[in-house]
């Protein structure tokens, strides 16, 4: 079969015509057709046609993402998909990235490694995200899969050390990707880097960005001799001492780069290959607004760019003028105490509008901004027709915002960006009225994931929102004014919802009204508010255990058995 891949749902209907068992379709054709069906929801629909299709889907499925580690057991996954080549498992809620989840919350990798590493005989790639991974887990993994493992991604994980990484490096000669970004790793020495350079000859991607692992320039040179195409993790410990790093020669094929603590004097190291870079991470550098402008002007082929808001509106204008192929843009918040980002006053509607007009290939935008208008959001809806994922956080540094509420701008963005599947909007009180919340519900028919913070005015706005979200599968709410009862009722109105997390609402001490949403296979975990700990952390946010939290999710594994004492599982009476 050549040409474009057939449309999956149309194939499902066509091949199922003529009999409920699909028996007239040859086995080879079914396997071929399944190869074109990549969307998990389409796969699920095809598997429900008949038992034969279900069996072929099970045997031919190459990759599965488990969106929450407590939603299914490893044993059940193995029975359903015994020939997986790639597996991704997500653990703690995203809120753990912001200190809102206790360290002992759970999400342990042990059962997933011990029960699946050996039985999944075809497994070549494993990704664990926001999970607790120990050195023993890594040892178990390499014993079972070391000879075949090609990709290991530990994303924002904790619990292991460089001893475990050294074992991976020595045992996995076919390893092509090692991803460790933002992991908390105990540093017992840099031998793992030398072992990686000598034992993994086909390594093309290495990322240990923001792990605090120390790597010397000489060790970077060892890695550079490999054909690395993506590298993130090098740290400039002595800013201004260019001679210390001047001898480091990056591979000629390098197209993705992320360096930590790079300053004005060091950025010249990037210039020789800046024109071929496709991905550049400048989030944790000491570059000024002017530095960003100079460097990005030399990177016309960027597809992915990550920066802090020190880039300013002026830097975003350079991005808009230079990076016409840009697909992903991330703008993180800077130092709230003042510093480099103060030079240009952060990012506002001016920079966002420039990006919308100049970078029309964008599929992903995540931005912390200081000011915003409805017009800027309308520009994104008008020009960014390929946008798949949009996330906006309005900082509270400025006393006055040019234009609030953002009801009309949000509606225009959602109407214009018809491919949008993931949407996050974290505003300030007054940023979105009940009317605007209703607009989100009306215009979000295709959105599957949503995070909302400081939105709406009353329970009525929440219910109006919920009535429109027919395909929403995952919802996160923060700093909202809604009652416990309204949250439970709203969740019942969203038929596709599989996961919801709420932090900061009008909570009771017992979570009694949450039982309104109780139903089979639906786990409800309640973290009661703790007024005695109602203090503020350094960033001004309430501490982790002062505000109530709700986590509710569908699970085929039953109630989990490793809840910490701070979490109360709720059961029907």
UniProtKB/TrEMBL annotation:
Record-annotated Transport inhibitor response domain positions: 82-128
CDD domains: F-box_AtTIR1-like (cd22159)
InterPro entries with a match to the protein in the record: COI1_F-box, F-box-like_dom_sf, LRR_dom_sf, Transp_inhibit
COI1 F-box domain location: 24-63
Classification via SUPFAM superfamilies: F-box domain (SSF81383), RNI-like (SSF52047)
Pfam family, one: F-box_5
Top-level taxon: Eukaryota
Name of the protein in its database record: Coronatine-insensitive protein 1
Organism this protein belongs to: Panicum virgatum
Organism lineage: Eukaryota, Viridiplantae, Streptophyta, Embryophyta, Tracheophyta
